[in-house]
Specification:
Number of helices: 6
Largest sheet: 2 strands, antiparallel
CATH superfamily: dinb family like domain
Number of domains: 1
CATH class: Mainly Alpha
Structural class: mainly alpha
Shape: globular
Strand order of the largest sheet: 1-2
Number of strands: 2
CATH architecture: Up-down Bundle
CATH topology: Four Helix Bundle (Hemerythrin (Met), subunit A)
Helix content: 55-70%
């Protein structure tokens, strides 16, 4: 029985490796997205509810506005890569619960886009922001870049509140 389980596992692993080898660019895009998704999700949970209205300075967004911005931009970018007009629903929300839910909804939507993207599909051109022509994978990579930029801002806010950002926490 153990031998059958081991062979089944090895077969599944080899199948996954073969699929990734067929789509190395989309697989890399998905890997990078999942890395920042994990950090952003944890950072959104890390900040206390009361501190979602915190601003690092008077000219900056609140922490909650950063979370909402990530959610809304992701919906638009992943929608562009999928060929759909998507609009986020975080604008105007202020509570941690509502904003974390909007962020999770954007990740759920984007997960489907990244999971279904192949290198061949990703090479197709689309218009980002209605004017800039990019490949679908280019749009998804821009999404990841944007998430990384916003996570950098979240880190500053967390540190100002005495919190250790997820990417700096010790591994358990």
């Amino acid at each position: 029985m153990t031998r059958i389980c081991t062979l089944t596992f090895l077969g599944a692993l080899l199948g996954a490796v073969a699929v990734q080898a067929q789509n190395p660019f989309s697989a890399d895009a998905k890997t990078q997205y999942n890395m920042i998704k994990n950090s952003v999700s944890k950072a959104a949970e890390e900040m206390g509810d009361a501190d979602y209205s915190f601003k690092a300075s008077s000219t900056e967004r609140t922490y909650g506005e950063i979370v909402g911005h990530i959610a809304d931009v992701q919906m638009g970018l992943c929608g562009t890569a999928k060929g759909e007009q998507k609009k986020g629903e975080a604008a105007g929300k202020t509570s941690k619960a509502d904003l974390v839910a909007a962020l999770q909804a954007s990740f759920d939507y984007c997960d489907g886009v990244y999971n279904s993207m192949t290198d061949a599909d990703g090479a197709a051109k689309v218009k980002m922001f209605g004017r800039l022509e990019m490949t679908k994978l280019g749009v998804l990579n821009f999404n990841t870049e944007h998430d990384n930029e916003m996570y950098g801002q979240m880190v500053v806010y967390l540190r100002l509140k005495g919190e250790v950002p997820p990417s700096s926490q010790r591994r358990k």
